[in-house]
């Protein structure tokens, strides 16, 4: 039962932070191509680990993470205003590179498949 509640709270926090990033955070360091991939709230609801995916190079990702970290107080205040909790969890932002990693793996698989087809001569032309 408790796990269900934590999952619901995590999902609500994800929605609130996504809306804040797209509409209310005015920091120029935060890239407009930022999305929240996952939120994990600790069992005692004191911390919310927020995983952020940013489209761009390494510098853009670091700047976005710095901008979000500096807006941590605003984000926590808005979570507290929009979600009825006794104590608002402290947001901790993490860079999530799983999307880039999966694209890299996908390209490697395609490359191996093409090389295999070339060796066999199975390629449809």
In a few lines, what is going on in this structure?
By secondary structure, the chain is an alpha+beta fold. The protein contains four helices and three strands.
Question: Which characteristics define this entry?
Answer:
125 residues, alpha+beta, GMP Synthetase, Chain A, domain 3, three-stranded mixed beta sheet, KH_dom-like_a/b, cytoplasm, RbfA
Percentage of residues in DSSP E strands: 15-25%
Q: What is the H/E string? A: HEEHHEH
**CATH topology assignment:** GMP Synthetase, Chain A, domain 3
Class based on secondary structure composition and strand pairing? alpha+beta
Summed up, the helix count is 4
The level 1 CATH classification is Alpha Beta
Which percent bin holds the helix content?
55-70%
Count the strands? 3
- Overall, the morphology is elongated
User: What is the first-to-last residue Cα distance?
Assistant: 57 Å
Uncertain runs:
none
Mean pLDDT, all residues:
90
CATH superfamily: K homology (KH) domain
Strand order of the largest sheet: 1-2-3
What would you call the quaternary organization?
single chain
| The CATH architecture | 2-Layer Sandwich
Largest sheet: 3 strands, mixed
The total domain count is: 1
């Amino acid at each position: 039962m408790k796990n269900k509640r934590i999952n619901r709270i995590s999902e609500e926090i994800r929605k609130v932070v996504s809306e804040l990033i797209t509409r209310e955070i005015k920091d120029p360091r935060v890239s407009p191509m930022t999305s929240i991939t996952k939120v994990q709230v600790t069992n005692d609801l004191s911390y919310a680990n927020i995983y952020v995916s940013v489209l761009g190079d390494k510098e853009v990702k670091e700047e976005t993470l710095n901008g979000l970290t500096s807006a941590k107080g605003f984000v926590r205040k808005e979570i507290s205003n929009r979600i009825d909790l006794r104590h608002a969890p402290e947001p901790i932002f993490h860079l999530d590179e799983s999307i880039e990693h999966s694209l890299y793996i996908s390209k490697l698989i395609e490359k191996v498949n093409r090389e295999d087809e070339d060796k066999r001569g199975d390629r449809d032309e």
